[in-house]
Amino acid sequence: MEGLKLGAKEQQYYAELFQACDSEGSGKVTGPKASELFLTSGLSPDVLIQITELCGAKRLGHFGRSQFYIALKLVALAQAGIPIKLDALNSGKDIPLPKFSSKGGEQVRFVLSDRKKSSGEPDSVASDSKTNTQLSGQLPPPPVSKKSHGRSLSGQYRGIVPDQPVVVSSQSSQFSSQMGVKDDSPHNSKSPPFSPTQSPPTSPANQKLLLKQNTAPATVFANSVTSVSSAGAPAPSHMTMSGSLDSADATVHLVSPSLLAGDGGHVNPVALSDGAVVTKSHVTIPSVGGIQVHAGHIQNPGVQSQHHQLQGQENGNWTMFEDEESHMLIGSGVKEQYITLDPPNFDSSSISSETESVDDVWTITDEQREYYVNQFKTMQPDLSAVITGPVAKHFFEKSKLPVVELSKIWQLSDMNCDGALSLEEFCIAMHLVVLRRNDIELPEHLPLSLMPYSTLASDEPFAADLPPGSTLKRATPPSPQQIVAQWTAFASESPDSGELHSPAHLANFEFAKPSADPELKIVQPVAVHVLPDGRPVPSEVCDRGRAFSDPAVLYDRTSGQELGETTPPLTKQRANTESHFHDSGQSEASNKYSTPIQGRPRPVPPKKNAAVPAVIRGQLQPPPGSSLDGSSAGGATERPNDISGGQFQSHAPPTPPPRPPHGRSMSVDVKSSSQLIAPAVPPRVSPKEV
Amino acid sequence: MAVCVAVIAKENYPLFIKTVPTDNELKFYYTVHTSLDVVEEKISSVGKNTNDLRELYLGLLYPTEDYKVYGYVTNTKVKFVIVVDSSNATLRDNEIRTMFKKLHNAYVDMLCNPFYKPGENITSKMFENIVLSMLQQD
């Protein structure tokens, strides 16, 4: 985060408050204390919760100086009726100082370092009056409760009067409880661990930054809450959050997306603009907001959410796989539930809507994807190339997930089973790891929303690996099962399926970016018969458009004979070939029949010789219905014969040499007449021979 | 159709073995074990002359009265053994070949996973599913 910009007055005020709250002098304000203070601000607990989350204290476990400042700023914003957003922290220059008044209950005595420094016991309900007064312009009585108060901030803060010290003591307890609750609630998951990033800045510069950050986090809280919820937290929580937010001062808006960006909790090296403390286990708060949104330890590396750079906080909170970052992933202290999957960039208003609508953890958000791409780049600069197995393995092992799970993730991700991860596959794998680190179970099969898809603005969300021509758009809904079925079918037949592209292409459907054309539904891939060595059969005239499950092709390898039988109707015509020949006497007929014969591509690749003749035979048979009036031809052992007989009848035999449409005789005649009649008809094995 | 499918490593220890649930599964394990001798014999005899022409599919290793055992060896000496019920007369050689091919493909796919170390037991769900599909209906 760029840092909180505080005016001199604010700076002083906040500093005093901080000192007042920081009874232990440890440089951080505990939750209860902070909550006490905040409660006196008159804001509703929800708002305060948001603020706490936004400032990153939730994650951190306490309020560092930066968090505290941010929180204060956010309180000021909230009190001023400005939506709490991290990005508002800097804009609202003229926001009055937050006011903390003592609201009934105990009064927390804020200890002001230079004023009346009460004993640093913010908890004491002592006469805050004096402290309050002092605090009025200065620090509101530091919340006594621990940071956990963040969430539970009640509405005490609502109308903080500058002159009144904030009495938050009672609140503190509430805070703590609330905080605790918060942690349990989905919201908690939302508040990504601010933690480490929030560590108190050591230098004034840092302070500034932290201030900014602190304020930002507050807003981020709001956002994060929402975002988190949306990101992946259970929808309800998310909803509640927004609901609660709304119920709160209603001024609390979700932090702008930027804040939330990437707060996944990664230590965003970038974000650590001032090189503030970056706890390994936590995500630095480059973007305070970002911290919020950090689900689990997944944090977007700030790199990704650059756009969210709200004050420098940018995300970074995605899973960090870098070595040092891996800690974050793993150990960031509290394993919160947040799911950083939510795209950081939602603004408060949109967040709620977005979160409600995008409650799908399986979808890769843009920032997530950005992050993943960047991670990919670290290993493989060429985005169109793949990451080899061992490299990827090493990378994913950094996530500290058990090998079993990594293995499963790999199986789900490596679509083409080539032992390497393309960019798409890598994104899927990363996403699954991120989810897994957020305690989301791995699915048995890849959810559709996670199916690899061409990242770039393809209308087809998950087009990349769909069978060519297919689309998930469901314009014509090829059901997911169908897709999956097709997919699995492809996979299973990969070595054999000639009709599809070579196995290597099986998974790489990226190139076959399905257009957004709704017509372009999942079209059964046109069977491409390939020769045994993989070359497509030359005469692919017949655009059979048969599904990959072309039985002919399928069986081709395994049961050559079956080819003939299973090929489509063409084969039926097998027996007719002879008859055709007979008909060939009739030039027309023969032509008619011969043409289709030639034109029709062999349905089955000549994998087996035996099959070929069958195919040919099939081919020969003219479309039965073409002009056969009556397959009255007798003796026709098979339909084709009859047809031919019929044909004979229908057409005046130009030359009746091939006479009787008998199967057998036909064959005989065929031989004799073949030269005459069916020049086009390729010699074929008579059915009986077959 | 198969009643038992086994994958044996190069060193002749089992990587994966799955049988149709039955009360006496040990019998199948024993059968697979004894079939290894036949496999060895087959691959040793062919190996010397036709070095790379050895066909992967070994065919019927030996029949017993209740079932038949088929074998398949990959180029890395990983052996697949399928035991089928003799009463299943409709099972053709081609179908067995198909089954082995499927097995081999699944095995290769599993090998592509860098998290699988060759030589360790096969725990891949995907592989197991394919085997189960073979055991159940096929």
From TrEMBL, chain A:
GO molecular function: calcium ion binding
TM region(s), chain numbering: none
GO BP: any one term: endocytosis
Residue runs in coiled coils: none
Name of the protein this chain belongs to: RalBP1-associated Eps domain-containing protein 1
Keyword Ribosomal protein tagged: no
Start-end of Basic and acidic residues biased regions: 575-585
UniProt keyword terms in alphabetical order: Calcium
Domain EF-hand: 401-436
Domain of life: Eukaryota
Biased composition (Polar residues): 126-137, 586-597
Positions with biased composition (Low complexity): 166-178, 626-635
Compositional bias (Pro residues): 193-203, 680-690
Chain spans, region Disordered: 114-206, 552-690
PROSITE patterns documented for this protein: EF_HAND_1, EF_HAND_2, EH
SUPFAM superfamilies (alphabetical): EF-hand (SSF47473)
GO CC annotations, alphabetized: cytoplasm; plasma membrane
Keyword Calcium: yes
The organism of origin for this protein: Candidula unifasciata
Family matches, as InterPro entries: EF-hand-dom_pair, EF_Hand_1_Ca_BS, EF_hand_dom, EH_dom
Domain EH span(s) in chain numbering: 10-96, 368-457
UniProtKB/TrEMBL annotation, chain B:
Domain of life: Eukaryota
SUPFAM superfamilies: SNARE-like
UniProt keywords, alphabetically: ER-Golgi transport, Transport
Location(s) in or outside the cell: Cytoplasm, Perinuclear region
Assigned GO CC terms: perinuclear region of cytoplasm
Gene Ontology terms describing biological process: endoplasmic reticulum to Golgi vesicle-mediated transport
Family indicated by similarity: Belongs to the TRAPP small subunits family. Sedlin subfamily.
Protein name: Trafficking protein particle complex subunit 2-like protein
